[in-house]
Protein 1
Amino acid sequence: MNFYLGIDFGTTGVRSTAIDSNGNIHSESQYNFTHEEPASELPSRWENALWAVIEQIPLAIRSQVRSIAIDGTSSTVMLCDTEGIPVCEPILYNDGRGVTVLDRLRAIAPANHTVLNATSSLAKLLWWLECEDTGRAGTGAPPLRRFFLHQADWLAFLLHGKLGISDYHNALKLGYDVANLCYPSWLTEGIAGVFKSSIAPILPQVVAPGIAIGPVTAQIGDRFGFPHDCIVCGGTTDSIAAFLASGVNSPGEAVTSLGSTLAIKLLSYTRVDDARYGIYSHRFTSPLQGGAGGGLWLVGGASNTGGAVLRHFFTDTELDYYSKQIDPKQESLLDYYPLLKKGDRFPNNDPNLLPRLEPRPADPVEFLHGLLESIARIESRGYELLQELGATPLTKVYTAGGGAKNLVWSAIRKRYLKVPVVTPVRTSAAYGSALLAMTVDS
Ligand SMILES: Nc1ncnc2c1ncn2[C@@H]1O[C@H](COP(=O)(O)OP(=O)(O)O)[C@@H](O)[C@H]1O
Ligand SMILES: O=C(CO)[C@H](O)[C@H](O)COP(=O)(O)O
């Protein structure tokens, strides 16, 4: 039997799912990140987590894995040398240090482009370039960088051994033109006019998510018992993987990922991009249609609000316990903007936006109600904007991620969204990546 393996790198942990060609699950494994590591330790932490989730898969399944796809947090980026060894600390998806290059980026990129966000992959790459140009000491300016990769690209490299390859989901926020499938000239040529060096030589080659990149290396095959012709595919981002897992295929339907962050994606006939609000469109790729997307778009955005803020104040057990004491029909008048630090990406693309978490009532149920209600307002404002800007009207919202199991929250969200809010059969991004891996046989 052929198995298809999906591996999801989220903020709080890593999960794997192995499925057969009918989509039935045969194995699941998980590795939770229990404490914060210094940024310099992240690559080795990710590598160890990758090995740990693979080792938990029964050998009998590993030996029949036909293909593997990995998703990672979108816009988490790295610079590596020719051996694939990171030459400096990775920059995480929600890191807004790119704010220092935004003015110069505005001079190069088209108005309102997706990259015009302090957290975009391109802003981070230019921040590195700026460090190099100015020779700023202590910034981690990497003199020996050769390859610019996203988290998912690098993890896939650990399996297939080829450097410099990304996919058009991860590459969207790098400025890759996902309609014409090429890097635009403002990116390949324009940068050199404003910064001292050109970035063209270090940009990854971009493939379609789910397309075969190459077999696992002999070393990986031997170590884990994968067949030597087991294929590693182009990957995707964590919230697109969650979208794919839901099985949504009808324009007007959407998936909200309530993980550490809040990400929304609406399947739309029309494309919408508007950097004022951090709204962008991914090219839709359906593994169920052999990687074709029917010209549809995944329109949406990702906010720094979400489960990470909830986890800062409550354990998962408390979230469950207190949520059950909330009456979802009753509106909380607490008006928060729940963030752990300054800056949001969507629906307020504002690197200086301040968290708003006051007043804080003594009653934890009341406080949690205010948090859930406020995150629901941000979600609903996001969907409202997508439609105001021309996306296909919203008909139904599926929920994925750790917050999907909170039915009280779903009821609160439904009050704002005014469409059915449902939990799909499959809510895990690893399942979506496993479906993506199946593209190689469709
Ligand atoms: N009952 C609950 N209600 C709301 N949120 C929850 C609940 N249980 C867990 N969470 C949130 O889910 C998040 C983890 O979701 P997950 O999808 O695993 O995140 P990620 O992929 O970003 O690591 C945590 O931040 C946690 O606060
Ligand atoms: O906060 C996140 C961590 O990855 C979001 O899931 C992500 O930013 C969404 O990005 P994309 O729309 O490119 O999948």
Protein 2
Amino acid sequence: MIILVIGVSGSGKSTIGKQLADSLHWEFSDADSFHSQENIEKMRNGIPLTDADRMPWLQDLQAAIKQWLQENKNVVLACSALKASYRQMLVLDKERIKIVYLKGSFQEIEQRLRSRRHHYMSAELLQSQFDILEEPTDAIKVDISDTPEHIVQHIRVSLEI
Ligand SMILES: Nc1ncnc2c1ncn2[C@@H]1O[C@H](COP(=O)(O)OP(=O)(O)OP(=O)(O)O)[C@@H](O)[C@H]1O
Ligand SMILES: O=C(O)[C@H](O)[C@@H](O)[C@H](O)[C@H](O)CO
């Protein structure tokens, strides 16, 4: 099974994804590590990515997901996947790929981004993330104001894993 942990920058994808994977003894993968140097530079300079910028990144993620499915791997993938069309590219198998959406308010997430250090994604880019966000309707929805421990528990109960 593959769990996609999605949401805007700073919603907690890496934090929750990692803890979820650890608790399940599954592999954890971060879509951030699939970005090209050009994309990272753009974000570092406070420029939001376009659909065209994201396309090769999504294709690489799609290839990785295909491989994991073929190998029957259990993986938690932290990935923004903000638009429905992006998610369509990643959910290659509805039975074996589940989406967890980390939902939070602009204010709460902005505060978290402002106190986070050493990351190329700044609080200034957050509005652009909310602007393009298309909330999923077919996902497990999680309130990010809860503690990571509770969130992980909630996800496991919802997915019965
Ligand atoms: N449930 C939570 N409660 C309190 N703090 C949290 C929670 N989840 C994440 N954080 C903190 O919020 C900040 C953002 O989290 P994190 O880096 O995991 O988000 P992200 O969605 O992976 O961000 P990005 O997409 O920019 O990589 C971090 O400093 C993290 O420690
Ligand atoms: O789609 C995007 O704009 C990007 O994936 C960003 O969301 C960042 O990669 C990530 O959130 C920061 O680490």
